[in-house]
């Protein structure tokens, strides 16, 4: 038990219960029970006349339909998934889960209607078809003698197609119309000919504007090219440090409306087109029309198949190169802040932990915060989930953490990737894990900079 005063994260952040919130409520010696915060005008008159203090609010319990007055210290939020442990309150938890889903849908619909009133059209941008260089950046155009030639022929059934053995396609090179032996029948010129999948911009329920396919999209199909302003590191300054960045904010095409998600149905790939590097969006799976509410989405990462590496592999295969020349190792740059939320991985409006050395950021909604915390705020990764003391062991996939007294049996080392994970995120499960070679009775710890 914590010594002295202890405050939960909701109290620290100033979060208060709201009407129509679903909570776990403790009354007297009875067990914790799910209930909904009620509007005073919707409860019986005799309940209103019951003795209660300032700061108390009425709740209605699921299952029994009884009412009671309670206060913040006797409640904690109901979370999605709590209904899995039905035990002896199966009927009440079934009602709770149904009501929780209905309230979530109602909240999303209100948010959607409000967004539509305030934002009936997508944000303004200038539509362009090709990348526009800004500043010192130049669009590279290779000499025809430097453009690689594949072995496909015009007589092939699908020359340079997705199911062919086109070496250019394998190495993410686009065939040049004047070099490829297949000529006009070449199927590996999607960037140059802008052979995009037919898509439309639409308003999602919870992620603003999105992109979706008008018809079915096959796995591996070229969806669209990510087009925008190409800027160098000097131009972007405080942004992510790379040689070149494509900014689709002020100028771009329909690909700029594709959302990010943790379970993407599309991926980004770097292709070499006429000597220049272009970024394309490709389907990871067969995507039926209207499969997802959020439409087409992609993970926040870019394929690591760099053109130079692909060129080296091709030269080795053709016998033009004998030895791979290793590049000088670059100094590792430690990020001051992560790019996406540690809970869901998405970007957007995020709050950062103020503890020195901690780069983690979160969405306020992912931490159940009613508003963005002010002042010196530390994320829940640094407090034990059981007692609130300083944490010593951490799940590497979510904010769960534990102190030295409570960590045993709650964290496991995954057989798949060797990372430390809690019961909710361990890919193998607690029965399929094995201890670390250095395991001496306590689970291994993840240390953070002080």
TrEMBL record:
GO CC terms: chromosome; nucleus
Residue span(s) of domain AWS: 145-195
GO terms (BP aspect): methylation
Any Pfam family matching the protein: C5HCH
Sorted UniProt keywords: Chromosome, Metal-binding, Methyltransferase, Nucleus, S-adenosyl-L-methionine, Transferase, Zinc, Zinc-finger
SUPFAM superfamilies: FYVE/PHD zinc finger, SET domain, Tudor/PWWP/MBT
Residue ranges occupied by any SET domain in the UniProt entry: 197-298
Tree of life domain: Eukaryota
Keyword Nucleotidyltransferase (UniProt): no
InterPro entries from the UniProt entry: AWS_dom, C5HCH, PWWP_dom, SET2_Histone-Lys_MeTrsfase, SET_dom, SET_dom_sf, Znf_FYVE_PHD, Znf_PHD
Localization annotation: Chromosome; Nucleus
GO molecular function per UniProt: histone methyltransferase activity; zinc ion binding
PWWP domain mapped to chain residues: 19-81
PANTHER family: SET DOMAIN PROTEINS
Name by which UniProt lists this protein: Nuclear receptor binding SET domain protein 1b
Species assigned in the record: Hucho hucho
């Amino acid at each position: 038990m914590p010594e002295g005063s202890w405050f939960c994260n909701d109290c620290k952040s100033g979060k208060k219960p709201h009407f129509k919130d679903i909570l776990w409520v403790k009354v007297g010696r009875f067990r914790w029970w799910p209930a909904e915060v009620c509007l005073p005008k919707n409860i019986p008159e005799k309940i209103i006349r019951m003795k209660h203090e300032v700061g108390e609010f009425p709740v209605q319990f699921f299952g029994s339909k009884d009412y009671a007055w309670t206060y913040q210290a006797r409640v904690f939020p109901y979370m999605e998934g709590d209904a899995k442990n039905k035990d002896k309150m199966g009927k009440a938890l079934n009602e709770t889960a149904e009501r929780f889903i209905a309230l979530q849908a109602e909240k999303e619909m209100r948010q959607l209607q409000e967004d539509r009133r305030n934002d009936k059209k997508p944000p303004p941008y200038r539509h362009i078809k090709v990348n526009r260089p800004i500043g010192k950046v130049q669009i590279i155009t290779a000499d025809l003698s430097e453009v690689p030639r594949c072995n496909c022929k015009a007589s092939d059934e699908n020359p340079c197609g997705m199911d062919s053995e086109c070496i250019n396609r394998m190495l993410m090179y686009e065939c040049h119309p004047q070099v490829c032996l297949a000529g006009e029948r070449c199927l590996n010129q999607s960037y140059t000919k802008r052979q995009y999948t037919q898509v439309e911009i639409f308003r999602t329920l919870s992620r603003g504007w999105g992109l979706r396919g008008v018809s079915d999209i096959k796995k591996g199909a070229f969806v669209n090219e990510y087009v925008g302003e190409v800027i160098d590191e000097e131009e972007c300054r405080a942004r992510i440090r790379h040689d070149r960045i494509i900014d689709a904010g002020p100028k771009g095409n329909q690909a700029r409306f594709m959302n990010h998600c943790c379970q993407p149905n599309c991926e980004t790939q770097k292709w070499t087109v006429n000597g220049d590097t272009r970024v394309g969006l490709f389907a990871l799976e067969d995507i039926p029309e209207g499969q997802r509410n959020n439409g087409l989405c992609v993970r926040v990462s870019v394929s690591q198949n760099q053109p130079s590496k692909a060129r080296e592999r091709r030269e080795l295969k053709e016998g033009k190169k004998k030895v791979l020349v290793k590049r000088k190792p670059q100094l590792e740059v430690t990020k001051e802040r992560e790019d996406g939320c540690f809970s869901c991985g998405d970007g957007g409006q995020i709050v950062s932990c103020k503890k020195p050395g901690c780069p983690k950021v979160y969405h306020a909604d992912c931490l159940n915060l009613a508003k963005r915390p002010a002042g010196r705020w530390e994320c829940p990764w640094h407090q034990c989930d059981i007692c609130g003391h300083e944490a010593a062991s951490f799940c590497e996939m979510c904010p769960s953490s534990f102190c030295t007294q409570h960590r045993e049996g709650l964290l496991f080392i995954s057989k798949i990737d060797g990372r430390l994970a809690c019961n909710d995120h361990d890919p193998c499960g607690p029965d399929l894990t094995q201890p670390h070679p250095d395991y001496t009775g306590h689970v291994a710890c993840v240390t953070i900079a002080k």
